[in-house]
């Protein structure tokens, strides 16, 4: 595929704690602590670059050891990080996640606001020449509402498809403030419930096609963890459902970002929504098999091998 995928958003170090016990409430537990380059935007960028796409990453890191570690990993994957802000004014963002022995994710704490605050609408405008060359612009909601609107507006004005990942339920409100058209909106179950439900009750995805607040989306992607994923074509009211690949997980963080990358990879190679969802499921399989937030085993060839097996089993 020719062209560029420009990705704007979170870049951070992931610290993953995996306890050796099932119950991890109110106590200290032995286990594994693993450091990995992370951030939703960065993870999507690395995955796509490993799949052979031309990727440019935009965001902010501190001029510190974590920042240098992230750049080394990201650049070695082939991602162009020239547009990333490197500054001594803030420390590189950190994301801390805790899971139990069954790899059930319990909670996370993120320290990302200070770097995100520097990824402004002005910063996006300053990179407009590069962004205009994009075949797709990918955003995450680590960006504030003003920056999101600037990027979406720019994409709409230049006829560039835009993909938005919601990142967390806490940051989902920023999506509601987007004025323009979003081609692809990607959410997990908690984000979906917060964005389209009342925070406790999860609406059926089929209901969204009738809702006025959903008309700005072309496709809504719902990632359902162990239950696979759904993709709703809003205007047509058509739902595509994707079964998961049954597998044990080494660690779950990064699987949703890998799904996004697989989906985008397929769309940019002229795949249908149905094909894109299958590629998303297959890409997430690789992330689930790695302690790192992006699997070192992901390549275009390895993804195609898993995709062919998955498609055969689905037929």
Quick one: overall form?
A: globular
The residue fraction in helices comes out at 25-40%
CATH architecture identity: 3-Layer(aba) Sandwich
- CATH structural fold name: UDP-N-acetylmuramoyl-L-alanine:D-glutamate ligase
* Radius of gyration, taken over Cα atoms and rounded to an integer in Å: 18 Å
Contiguous uncertain segments of 5+ residues? none
Structural class: alpha/beta
The CATH superfamily is Ribokinase
Main β-sheet description: 8 strands, mixed
What's the CATH C level? Answer: Alpha Beta
Q: What is the count of distinct domains?
A: 1
Beta-strand residue percentage:
25-35%
Mean pLDDT: 93
Ends apart, CA distance between termini: 27 Å
Number of strands: 14
Strand order of the largest sheet: 4-1-9-10-11-12-13-14
- Please tally the helical runs, counting DSSP H or I stretches of 4 or more residues: 11
What does this structure look like?
The protein has 315 residues and is an alpha/beta fold. The protein has one domain: Ribokinase (UDP-N-acetylmuramoyl-L-alanine:D-glutamate ligase, 3-Layer(aba) Sandwich), CATH 3.40.1190.20. The protein is built from 11 helices and 14 strands. An 8-stranded mixed sheet has the order 4-1-9-10-11-12-13-14, sandwiched between helices. Strands 3-2-7-8 form a 4-stranded mixed sheet. β7 (93-99) and β8 form a beta hairpin. It is globular, with a radius of gyration of 18 Å. The model has no long low-confidence stretch (mean pLDDT 93).
């Amino acid at each position: 595929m020719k062209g560029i995928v420009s990705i704007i958003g979170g870049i951070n170090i992931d610290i993953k704690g995996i306890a050796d016990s099932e119950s991890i409430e109110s106590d200290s537990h032995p286990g594994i602590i693993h450091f990995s380059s992370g951030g939703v935007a960065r993870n999507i960028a690395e995955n796509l670059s490993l799949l052979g796409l031309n990727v440019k990453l935009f965001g902010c890191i501190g001029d510190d050891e974590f920042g240098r570690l992230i750049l080394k990993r990201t650049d070695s994957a082939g991602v162009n990080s020239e547009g990333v802000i490197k500054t001594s004014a803030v420390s590189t963002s950190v994301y801390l996640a805790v899971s139990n022995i069954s790899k059930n994710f319990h909670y996370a704490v993120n320290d990302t606001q200070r770097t995100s605050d520097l990824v402004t609408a002005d910063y996006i405008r300053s990179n407009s020449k590069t962004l205009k060359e994009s075949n797709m612009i990918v955003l995450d909601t680590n960006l504030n509402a003003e920056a999101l609107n600037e990027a979406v507006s720019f994409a709409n004005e230049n006829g560039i498809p835009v993909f938005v990942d919601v990142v967390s339920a806490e940051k989902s409100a920023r999506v509601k403030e987007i004025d323009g058209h979003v081609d692809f909106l990607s959410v997990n179950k908690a984000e979906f419930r917060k964005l389209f439900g009342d925070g406790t009750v999860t609406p059926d995805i089929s209901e969204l096609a009738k809702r006025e607040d959903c008309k700005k989306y072309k496709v809504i992607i719902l990632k359902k963890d162990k239950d696979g994923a759904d993709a709703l074509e809003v205007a047509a009211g058509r739902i595509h459902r994707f079964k998961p690949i049954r597998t044990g997980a080494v660690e779950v963080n990064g699987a949703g970002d890998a799904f996004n990358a697989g989906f985008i990879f397929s769309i940019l190679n002229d795949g249908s929504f149905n094909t894109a969802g299958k590629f998303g499921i297959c890409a997430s399989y690789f992330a689930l098999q790695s302690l790192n937030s992006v699997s070192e085993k992901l390549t275009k060839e390895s993804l195609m091998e898993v995709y062919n097996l998955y498609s055969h089993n689905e037929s």
